[in-house]
Write a structure and sequence with these properties.
About 80% of the residues lie in helices and about 0% in strands. The chain has one domain (about 5-90). It has about 100 residues and is an all-alpha fold. The protein has helices at about 5-45, 50-60, 65-85, 85-90. The protein starts with a helix and ends in an 8-residue tail after the last helix.
Length: about 100
Amino acid sequence: MTTRLEERAKKLEASLRQTKARISKEKRQERNGQLVSIGILFEQNFSKMTPDEKAKWKTRTDLLDARNKSRVLAAFERMPQAEISPEAVVVTGTGTAGQG
């Protein structure tokens, strides 16, 4: 038989776990948003780089683990298409493609 105090302690522990999970989720969402923003910034700048500068960035993928390296290389393959794709302007959200 559990006492009221033990029941209250269990409820508080459950509430604490939920609160920690919510905070963790919020932090993860914020970090993901930051990573997306950095990716957009890099993609916009990558399209303006010289072929030599692009090649330097591609060699830097050796610092990554296999999973991330694969993702980055796939992104590099996709990026030249984004330079001419009208959809790319919508994806970046700047609405200033081709200006200044």
